[in-house]
Design brief:
Bound molecules: 1,3,4-trihydroxy-5-OXO-cyclohexanecarboxylic acid
Strand order of the largest sheet: 2-1-3-4-5
Radius of gyration: 14 Å
Helix content: 25-40%
Order of helices and strands: EHHEHEHEEH
Largest sheet: 5 strands, parallel
Structural class: alpha/beta
Shape: globular
Distance between the termini: 16 Å
């Protein structure tokens, strides 16, 4: 089955604990479990990863060039700062969907700009942790593995 990397940036390890009024109560382990289950039903393998370090995320995107067919990425605050992640994604050929749990456009103006959006094939914003599942459905459709 095609592999989808689901990459998460800084502070998302605290999902479910930090600012639950913004990010909800689900943990990243819950997201991982739900994505794996949905992936199976869509015919996709998933590998969810999280790092607080920009270089680690760049390395995972490089790894995806040989190993993965698509990327779902929530870069956290690196969304708004990282040209390095944009450059790495530009070197990846498959579909890329950008996810933000919160509606960044309702928040501070520094969250309104995303470097990653310059590369993303689709963007899911403000749908809570359900956004990851919506992203997987879109990936399945783009890869032609499902009528999703
Ligand atoms: C976030 C939004 C970012 O602005 C923030 O820095 C995050 C999470 C989101 O999922 O809503 O860490 O990417």
């Amino acid at each position: 089955m095609p592999l989808v990397l689901i990459l998460n940036g800084p502070n998302l390890n605290l999902l479910g604990q930090r600012q639950p009024e913004i990010y909800g109560r689900e943990t990243l382990a819950d997201v991982d479990r739900d994505c794996a289950a949905l992936g199976q039903s869509l015919g996709l393998d998933t590998s969810l990863r999280q790092s607080n370090h920009e270089g680690q995320i760049v390395d995972w995107i490089h790894e995806a060039r040989d190993r993965a067919q698509a990327i779902v990425i929530n870069p956290g605050a690196l969304t708004h700062t990282s040209v390095a992640i944009l450059d790495a994604l530009n070197a990846f050929e498959g579909p890329v969907i950008e996810v933000h749990i919160s509606n960044v456009h309702k928040r501070e103006s520094f969250r309104h700009h995303s470097y990653v959006s310059l590369r993303a094939d689709g963007i899911i914003v403000g749908c809570g942790t359900q956004g990851y599942q919506l992203a997987l459905r879109r990936i399945a459709a783009l890869l032609g593995y499902s009528a999703a």
